[in-house]
Task: structure prediction
Amino acid sequence: MSKTTEKIDRLAELTTRTTTASGGSLWTEALRRLRSSKMALVGGTVMALFIVIAIVGPWVAPYDPTAQTWRDEVFTNRGVFIGPRGDNWLGLDHLGRDMFSRMLVGARQTLLVGVVSTVLGFVVGALVGGLSGAALAFGGKAGQRLDTVLMRFIDMMLALPSLLLAVSVAAILGQSLTTVMIAVGVIQIPVFARLLRGSMLAQAGSDYVLAARALGVRRRRIVLAHVLPNSLGPVIVQTTLALATAIIEAAALSYLGLGNPDASQPEWGVMLSQAQRFFDAEPMMAVYPALGIIITALGFTLLGEAMREALDPKLRS
Amino acid sequence: MPLLTVDELTVTFAGRGGPDTTAVSGVSFTVDQGEVVGLVGESGCGKSVTSLALMGLLPAKGVTVGGTARYTGTGTDVDLLTLRRSALRDLRGTQLSMIFQDPLSSLNPVVPIGVQVTEILSRHRGLRGAAARKEAAALLDRVGIPDPTRRLKEYPHQLSGGMRQRALIAMAVACAPRLLIADEPTTALDVTIQAQILELLRELVDDQGTALLMITHDLGVVAGLCDRVNVLYAGKAVEAADRHRLFADPAHPYTHGLLGSIPRLDAPRGERLNPIRGSINDRIAWEDGCAFAPRCDFYTPQCLGGAPPLADRPADGAAAPPEGHLVRCVHPVHTTAEATEVSR
Amino acid sequence: MSLLELDDVKVHFPVKRGVFFDRTVGHVYAVDGVSLTVEAGQTYGLVGESGCGKTTLGRAVLRLNDITAGRVVFDGTDLAALPSEEMRRARRRLQMVFQDPLGSLNPRQNIESILAEGMAAHGIGATREERRTKILDILDRVGLPASALSRYPHEFSGGQRQRIGIARALVLEPDLIICDEPVSALDVSIQAQVINLLEELQDSLGLTYLVIAHDLAVVRHISDRIGVMYLGSLVEEAPSEVLYAEPRHPYTRALMSAVPVPDPTVEAGRERILLRGDLPSPAAPPTGCRFHTRCPWRQPERCDTERPVLTDMGDGHRVACHYAAEIAAGTVLPTRDLAPRVLRDTDDTDGTGGPSAPADTEGTGGAEDTAGTVPVQKPPPAADPQETPGTGGTPA
Result:
C-alpha cells in the first residue's frame, strides 16, 4: 500500500518538474513580462526621470528661469551668445536667461500639456468610440445608425490635417495654455475613438462573447464586463504613444505662436520656437529643447511598444 | 542506401527568460526512395519541428539543432543540418520540397498563381516565357486543377482551399523532387477534399517514385498512405514499424492508447472509448524515465530508469521477433491475435 | 417525446454593398429549409463539411443568429417568435458548448467568475456560497479539481478548458446542450476523454444533445440519430446504425467513403467515391438538387431542375434524392466524369496501379473504359458494401 503511494509520489514529483509554473490573471502576467523587457526598462527610466524633473524642477533649478540675469552679456544683433560655462551649464538664451534652469522648469509645462491633452483625447475618444462600438455590435438597427452618425463625424475630424484642426481650435478659443491643451486633445480624439471602436468590434465577434450571449447574459453586462476590458489593451498602449505625439504637437503649436501668451514662462516647445530666429548664430539654443522633446517622446514610445508586446496574448508562452 | 537518414536529431529552443525547451530529442528514421514514411503524434510531440529542421526552416536565432540528416540523392551526399543556406536553397527547389498545412499563408497573396509557379520553373529548370507558362499549365492540370490556363491568371484568394493545396503541391513537384515533406497537408481541408489530396499524393509517389515524409496527427491518414510509421511522443520516437504491423499489433502503450481513443466509423456502436488519461502536460523529463509514464496504464517503477532505448520489439511467445518493429518501452503491450480480430 | 423540433428553418444572410447606403445585392443561403426533430434524452448528430450551414443552424436554435423563416419549437414554445428578453431567459434551458475551448472563455475571468456568470444572469443561487457549492459540484462532475476556481483559462490544457466550457453550460441545468464541434480542436487522446464525459453526463443527468461536427466517426459514435447536411439543407437523416450500414444519398456515401479508418487492411479494401470539385458557393446554390454538380449518379433533367424533398424510405430513414431507390437497387449507375474513382478501389486508369492490396485484384477492373464516361458497375446493394474486402458479390 505505502509502496504504491510512494511510487505515485515519485511520478508526481517528476511530473511537476516538467510543468512550468504560471499563474495569475492576464494583467498580472503582462506586468511580469513588462518587468523583464529591456525596452520597458529604458522607456520607463526615461519617463520616470522626466516626471521627477517635472515635479522637482522649479526647486532644483539654480536660477530664476524668467529673470534676464545676464541680459547685458548677450547681443543678438551682433551674434554674441554665451555657450555652456561654469555658472550656466547649458549657456544663456537670447535674453540672457539660464538655459539649464529653463529646461528644468519647462519640463513641468511640457508634461502638463502632454498629460492633460492626452487624458482629454482619451476620455472623449473612448466615450465616442465605446458608444459607437457598443451600439454597432449590440444595438440592432438603431445602434447601426448611431454608429454611422458618430463615425462620419470622427471621419470628418480625421480628414482635416491635425495641425490645421489644432490651429482652428486655438483660433476660436484664443491664445492660452489651456487652448494648447484642448487643441492637442481634440486632435487625439479620432485616434482613440477609432481604435476603441475597432477593438470592441473585434472582441464582440469573439467566441467568448458568443458564449456569454448563449448563456443568457444581459447585453449591458456583456459590453461592460466582457467586451470593454478586453478591448482596452491597444488603447492603453496608444495612450503612451499619444503622450509622445501630444508633446510634439504642443511644441508645434507653441512654435507657431499659438501657445502660452506669457512667453517668458519656459516650455520646451516655446523655447524651440524662440530659438528659431537665432538658429544661424546659436543652434544649441534649439538643440537642447529639441533633444528634450525627442528623448521624452522616445521614452514614451518605447514604453508603449513594450506594453503592446506584454499585452499581446499571441506572444504568451 | 536510403534517400534520407536522420540520426539522433535534436532541436532545442532557448527559453526566453526560462529554461530551454527540447522539442525534438534524438529522433532517428530513414526514408527510402519511393517510400512513404509517416511521422505521427499529437501536438507538442515534435513532428513539425522535425520537418522544419530538415528543410532548414527553423529560425537561426535561439535554436540549437543536433544530430545528422544525411541526404543521398543523385550526385549528392550531404548533411541537411549543416549544409550552407545557399546550397540548401538550391537543393530545396530541385530535390526536396515541402507542403504545409495552411495553403493560403504559403502562397503569396498579391501574385497570381501562374507567376508563382513559373518563377520556380525559371529558377530551377531554366524555363522562360511561353515554355514556362505551358509547363505551369501542365503542372496544374496534373494535380487536377480544371481549366489550368485560366487558373494561372488567378490570385490565391480566388481559389478554394482544396485548389490552393493542389496549387501548392504543383509548385512542390514542379522540379520532380526526390523527397516531398508534407506537414499536415490535409488538416485544414474537408474530408471529401482530403480524400482527393491524399489520392493525388499517392499518385505522385506511385508515378514518379517520389519519397514522401508525411507528418500528421491523423492515424486514419497514416493507415491509408504510409508504408512505415514513426510514432512520436514528447520529442522522441516511441514506436516505429511497418503500417500493417503497427495497426495490428501496437507495442507501445501510447500507440495502443491512441488507437483505442479513436472512434471508428466501422466499429460497433455503444462501446465507450478508452481514452489515455491526462494530457501532454503530464509528463516527466526523458532523463528521468519514460515521458509517457504518468499517463500509462502499465506504469511500474522500472519506467523511471531513464529513457528506455528504441529497441526491437521482443518476441511474442512462440512467434519469432518481428523484423523492423522498434519500440521504446520497458514492458511493451502484447496485443493477442484474438484482440486484433476484435479490433477489426 | 420530442424536445426540439425545427420546421423549415431558413437563415439567409444578406450580402450588402454600397458606399453611403447599404444595398442588399444578394443572400447567402446558409440554412435553407431544414426540418428535424430531436427526441428528449437522445443525441442528434448533425454532420457536414465546412460551409454546409450546420454551425449556423446550431446558433439559430439559440437565436444567436436571426432566423429568416421557419419555426424552432422547444418544449412546445416557438423560440423564433419569442421577444428578446424572453428568449434570453429561455437560454437557461438550452446551452451551448463551443469548438474553440480557449477562445470561448473570457481570458480575463477566472473559472469561478466564468461559471457563476450564467447563474447570476438567470438568478440561480441566492448567495455566493450557494453558487459556489453548485459550481464545486459541477466541477467535480466534469473532472476538474476545486483548486481550479481561482485560476484562469490560459493555465489549463485544451481538454481541461473544454471541460470548463461544458461545466459552464451544466451549471444552468439545461435540458438541451448544443455541442458545436466539441472535440475537433483537441488532440486525439483528449477527444476520447471529452466524448466519454459527454456520454457519462447524458447518462447521469438525462441531457439531450444536438452535436454538430464534421467528423463522421465522432458523430456516429455519440449520436442516436444523424442528419447529413449539404449546402444548407438536410440530404439524409437516419438512425445512426442505419445510416452507416445503408447510406442512401450519394453525398452521404461519398462522405463516408472519404473518412479515413485507422486500419490499413480496411483502408486498402474500402469503397471509395472520390468526388470531383469543391462545394459550390452558398450565395449562389445550384438549381434543383444542390448536390447535382458533383453527384456521380446524376441523371439528366430532373436532378438539376427539381429540388428533392426529404422522403421517408421506411424506419425513419429520410433521404432527399430523386433516385435513392433506384441507386439502392442498382438500376441507376454512377458515371466517372464526376468522380474519377467510384466504389471499390479497383479501377486503374493508367496501368501504374494504386497502393496495392489484395482486394484490388478482384472486381471490375477489366470491364472499365479509361475514357471515363462509361458507367462503373457496383456490387449489389443487399450486401453491406463497406464492410471488408471480400464480402459481397462482385459482378465481374
Observations:
- Residues 337-344 of chain B have pLDDT under 50 and may be disordered.
- The longest strand of chain B covers residues 21-31.
- The radius of gyration of chain B is 21 Å.
